[in-house]
From TrEMBL, chain A:
The keyword Transferase does not apply. Its cofactor is thiamine diphosphate; (R)-lipoate. This is Pyruvate dehydrogenase E1 component subunit beta. Residues 1-77 form the Lipoyl-binding domain. Its EC number is 1.2.4.1. It holds the Pfam family Transket_pyr.
Automatic annotation (TrEMBL), chain B:
It comes from the Bacteria. Keywords: Oxidoreductase, Pyruvate, Thiamine pyrophosphate. The gene is pdhA. It catalyses: N(6)-[(R)-lipoyl]-L-lysyl-[protein] + pyruvate + H(+) = N(6)-[(R)-S(8)-acetyldihydrolipoyl]-L-lysyl-[protein] + CO2. It is an enzyme of class 1 (oxidoreductase). The keyword Transmembrane helix does not apply. This is Pyruvate dehydrogenase E1 component subunit alpha. PANTHER family: PYRUVATE DEHYDROGENASE E1 COMPONENT SUBUNIT ALPHA, PYRUVATE DEHYDROGENASE E1 COMPONENT, ALPHA SUBUNIT BACTERIAL AND ORGANELLAR. Heterodimer of an alpha and a beta chain. InterPro entries: DH_E1, PDH_E1_Alpha_Subunit, Pyrv_DH_E1_asu_subgrp-y, THDP-binding.
Amino acid sequence: MPQILMPALSPTMEEGKLSKWLVKVGDTVSSGDVLAEIETDKATMEVESIDSGVVTELLVAEGTEGVPVNTPIAVILAEGESAAPAPVAKTAPEPSEAPVVPAEKAAEAAPSQASVPAAPKFQAENDPDLPEGVEMVEMTVRQALNEAMAEELRRDKDVFIIGEEVAEYQGAYKITQNLLQEFGPERIIDTPITEHGFAGLAVGAAFAGLKPIVEFMTWNFAMQAIDQIINSAAKQLYMSGGQVKAPMVFRGPNGVASRVGAQHSQDYSAWYSHIPGLTVIAPYSAADAKGLLKAAIRSPNPVIFLENEVLYGSTGLVPKMDDFLLPIGKARIARRGADVTIVSFSMGMRYATQATEKLVAAGVDVELIDLRTLRPLDSDTVIESVKKTGRLVTVEEGWPQGGIGAELSARVMEQAFDYLDAPVLRVTGKDVPMPYAANLEKLALPNVDEVIAAVNAVTYRS
Amino acid sequence: MARKAVATKAKTQSNIPEFTKEQDLEAYREMLLIRRFEEKAGQMYGMGLIGGFCHLYIGQEAVVTGITMASEKGKDAQITGYRDHGHMLVMGLDPKGVMAELTGRSGGLSRGKGGSMHMFSNEHRFYGGNGIVGAQASLGTGLAFAAKYKGDGSVSIAYFGDGAANQGQVYESFNMAKLWKLPVVFIIENNKYAMGTSIERASATTDFSQRGASFDIPGEQVDGMDVRMVYDAAQRAIEHARSGKGPFILEMLTYRYRGHSMSDPAKYRTKEEVTQYRQERDPIEQVKARLIAGGFQTEEELKAIENGIRAIVTEAADFATNDPEPDAAELWTDITISA
């Protein structure tokens, strides 16, 4: 390989200045020796020889500006090599004869790149049929979450819990109550207040084959750790060509608590649902909390499990089974109806459920859908419903811009436009940081009346 | 202002450990493979075959070589930042796969989906290849956590640079590593510049071996240009970690000859400084001189080794040039695992 070519300093560089030769004809060079310096407006670089030999020709004079990348700039002959006639440097192709349509114009109309292959379609399973006569136990969401973790800790010794106050304190919100006593300090691990560090540590442990459950005291504090969640956990499988997994759960209370102000009241549903590589779950009922958390712990993927402090004490019926698992990625139709579709999740379901009761009493046949999982998002269930009702109202506590409702609205517009009898309406948290004052906080949150008003609007009842 | 970079020689290391002929030969081969591979990568970058960022390890070869020689290959885990090609080559990952990842081809270690900064091997226990400065300190501490949890006797070796040494999560990791006595060795590769910012302009204290002092983590400063010094210190640090005493910090005083990445203004340091390192401290030349002076190898024998390495690098480059790009369907694979 006798020719030395003008190198590129970056993929966007097209030409540069050959500022200086550091060798002359007749010099013997070996690999690593600096031959020349080149320069662009933002960088300089030394051209090193990658072969040994004798410099027989310098093809470009030093100080020459605008030398195109890949132009031969020197010839180096290895020992015993003879000078072959230098191939003619590439020149611009001759213009082709009389094109009917200028090439640029033609290119505008037709896609020039290979077409993007279709995305594979996620197919969620249905909820399993419950065994006949199964006992239904009333319990709080808190108990359901606690049972789910205890069962999975018993089942798999690679599962452990790590976070602030999860062990001795028994959980800041008592979700990990009694787990230290049963599983010991090796598996229920109190951390220093160091979210970025322990999240990264847990991701590393997952790479090495463990199955961490990372508890964030609240998701607000996970912003300190979001780089490790997204850049390390979510992207690892893809960046490694499928080699390195991060089987883990990040969980804790999300959304608005009560009177704790802007930094402690925020809904991260839309944030995490944006990220390919993550699974995002936000349950409302106690049964869903248990069945989905167990599924999340068994998932080979990093799962964001968004709980809600206000819902921890609410009760529901949970089937008493050895292994109650629910499918990730499947919405639940909480009430079947024909007039209007309301879609919500997590705390939003409380507003939506109360509004539905009132609307049904007023003669509106509401179909109410609880998304349960936000990624993969079960839009099939929503689209099918909208095809039937022709109307959609979404309810969430998060901010409107780029929210879950915004995403659903776009998908319905794309896939069920012709079925819509009214614009999709979103009921969301107001587009403000959460205020502290009781009256202002109430105004900032979505409420039952807003849901009813939206339904009235899309059904033209107002 | 104007504090001078004096930390070119390690101050805590005294005796120079002797290498056997076999050790010198091993070190020579490994370091030369990195050097020739990186030169080729630089050339292929210049030809437009490699895109994006490409951070070359030229000059720092003794660090990863000496440490890996002191570690248990296939058992101890290693993790580093974005300047990662050398680590993979010494750990035994296929040079063809590394080069083909650099060119974004289907035969790359990450099937062309990772690039220069994102390659991994469960088999060789190499965990990247991480593009976010400092992230590998926490991740590497997690690898050590897993080692202790499983009781498998492995040690985690986490490399980061003088730049990353100022990131907050490094100290969060130091704290937990010491608190829980995790088997981790932190290697601070101090090549004196975080991109273009010298350690004197970025760090309130420039003795990075003492950065664990607040956590009572022992640290040593090591001449990272002498593979024997690196190996010797690494043996002690790894033994410390493996025996259950917790983390250890090794600051490797090293130097990169090339720019931070390919596009480098080269205005932040003098040409004389670079030349001086290359001429007086080069890790490969040191070993080569020893091998010849000791009468272990003749120039011809070393030439034969060099030719063998050249053949490996040429084969890797040819493979990486001719291997096809990933199939378009790869766009949608490996995002999540179907349960």
